[in-house]
Amino acid sequence: MDPSALSARPVLVLDFGAQYVQLIARRVRERHAFARIVRHDITAERVRELNPLAIILSGGPKSVYEPGAPQCDPGLFHLGVPVLGICYGMQLAVQALGGKVEAPPAREFGRTDCHVLDPAEPLFHDVPRDTVVWMSHGDQILDAGADFLPLAATSTCPIAAAKHRTMPFYGLQFHPEVSHTPYGSLILGNFLDRICANPRSWTMEAFIERAVEQVGRQVGPDQRVVCGLSGGVDSAVCAALLARALGPRVVCVFVDTGLLRGGERADVENVFRSHSEAELRVIDASTQFLKALEGVTDPQEKRLRIGHTFIDVFREEARSIPGAHFLAQGTLYPDVIESGGEPDGPTATIKIHHNVGGLPAELGFELIEPLRDLFKDEVRRLGLELGLPDSLVWRHPFPGPGLAVRCLGEVTAPRLEVLRQADAIFLDELRQAGLERQIAQAFAVLLPVQSVGVMGDARTYENVIAIRAVETEDFMTADWSRLPHEVLARSSTRIINSVKGVNRVVYDVTSKPPGTIEWE
Ligand SMILES: Nc1ncnc2c1ncn2[C@@H]1O[C@H](COP(=O)(O)OP(=O)(O)OP(=O)(O)O)[C@@H](O)[C@H]1O
Ligand SMILES: O=c1[nH]c(=O)c2[nH+]cn([C@@H]3O[C@H](COP(=O)(O)O)[C@@H](O)[C@H]3O)c2[nH]1
Ligand SMILES: NC(=O)CC[C@H](N)C(=O)O
Ligand SMILES: [Mg+2]
Questions:
Q1: Dist CA 430 CA 344 (whole Å)
Q2: pLDDT exceeds 90 at position 20
Q3: Active-site residues: which are they?
Q4: β-pair partners for 468
């Protein structure tokens, strides 16, 4: 299925390496326009094919005049599509269109007072003339040339915003996407609504309609869909959408990988049967997964093998489902971006998500991934819209590769058991402290190192468990939770006292970035 077929005309966000490029995409979506992040060197020809509503050029760490600084196809400026350049993006466009960019003596970082020059300018509609913006730049536009009209200024940056006099190009030296620019979201909204005539069609109701129609068209009346169901919110929402489109032609398959948490299998069965009438098959493939992981310690290799084993299991099961040509998965936008290698997507591979980069070349199925364009918070809103219970919609995510990517080093049954016990205790402590909803995801990790301890007057040399709790909405960025010390203390004591083979517990205080949520 064409991944963008379900979506409205996109706002393409060209990624020049900005730390929070996803934030731009999310802000655009909050304004009911469909944002897609693409590589900075996407060709003007490809952009024309994608028929975008607008183009946004992101910020970036380089200086536009440096050799090797990332460029964009200059043809973009002549497509007649409105372009908004943010920081690096503005500097790049102004340089490409005849202006001059340099590093002035004073750099600007953080909150800055900004003066809007013309209150009638649509980009600044309803924005106070004197406002605060968030700056983060060492370079700025020294001379925009005769073709640009300055729109705003700060005390050291005379061209804090500008527009081209004849082409639909707008530039902002400051960052409208961060919450420290109080009117930033409004400015982005003005760009979309007043300059791009945004039809505001990116809503979850409209999404459901389009998705149901698209899936109904794709799957013939005698064909059936195998839907990988994990108990997580993504696959539950995916299954609910498919059930709406196809009724009993959806068969949900839950795979017990042997990499699940304690009690997970029974939980998933209970929850699913209580809210869905679709068929559910539960398959125990734990031996197969453990065998595939034997001797493997490299994180990417683990993910690849897990992705392949999932497909083997789905294929085997599909043999007993007549007309099962399709495999549906609850793949989300972050899974796709982080796996890298998407045709138009940004290039860096962070990790191979088992359900994207981990798939074998010969799948044997046509994939259906109706959530492939959505962020997690959007999937949750979709779930609520589809009538799924709160308890399911707000479940913490659990990755398909499961405990395998939290069992650092080799994955063996005894090591998994140590991890499973420690994880259950930590989650139980969080539940008892009433912290579950405020935390986005929490888990234990078994490290491949041993440390010295003393227990009952005797020396020990045993495993280390790391515990991790993070807060985030979209799982693209995250901060570690400031858990109360008592909760950490109780978790640590209980884990060491009751899990055999563990003598030390540490708490992970790394945000994302620079860390990722999982350790592998
Ligand atoms: N144990 C499993 N059995 C069958 N399919 C699975 C299993 N684990 C993962 N999948 C498939 O892989 C997809 C991606 O997994 P992922 O963990 O990202 O999503 P999820 O489990 O649906 O939601 P969440 O992110 O909330 O855990 C799932 O939507 C599902 O289709
Ligand atoms: O189904 C999945 N297959 C995977 O291969 C995978 N890797 C990470 N995750 C989950 O994605 C979110 C972001 O995780 P990271 O910050 O570790 O990339 C977190 O919620 C992770 O648990 C995965 N889910
Ligand atoms: N945040 C940015 O985009 C910075 C752009 C450029 N590197 C500068 O310092 O001005
Ligand atoms: Mg999951």
A1: 41
A2: no
A3: 87, 175, 177
A4: 443
Ligand nearest to the backbone CA of 404 = 2
Summarize pLDDT for 60-103 with one digit per residue, the tens. Answer: 989 999 999 999 999 999 999 999 999 999 999 999 999 999 99
Question: Looking at the domain assignment, is residue 5 inside a domain?
Answer: no
Tens digit of each residue's pLDDT (9 = 90 or more) over 274-297:
888 889 999 999 999 999 999 999
Can you tell me which atom of ligand 3 is nearest the CA of 136? 1
Same domain membership, residue 136 and residue 19? yes
Instruction: Give the ipTM of the model, two decimals please.
Output: 0.90
For ligand 1, whether the C-beta of 339 sits within 6 Å is no
Considering only residues 514 and 258, tell me which one the structure prediction assigns the higher pLDDT: 258
Q: How many domains does the chain have?
A: 3
164 and 17 in a single domain? The answer is: yes
Please write the tens of the pLDDT for every residue from 345-375. 775 677 788 788 778 878 889 999 999 989 8
Instruction: Give dist(CA 34, CA 224) in Å, integer.
Output: 30
d(CA 229, CA 221): 22
Query: Do residues 249 and 286 both lie within one domain?
Result: yes
Nearest Cα neighbor of 77 from 99, 36, 47 is: 47
Q: How far apart are CA 283 and CA 260, in angstroms?
A: 13
153 & 283 share domain: no
The CA 230 to ligand 1 mean position distance, Å, reads: 4
Vertex 100 angle, CA 98 and 106, to 5°: 160
Q: Examine the domain organization and report whether 477 and 433 are in the same domain.
A: yes
Domain CATH number, residue 243: 3.40.50.620
- Residue 276 domain boundaries: 204-393
| Residue 514 domain flag | no
Residue whose pair of structure tokens reads 């595939």 in the numeric block: 292
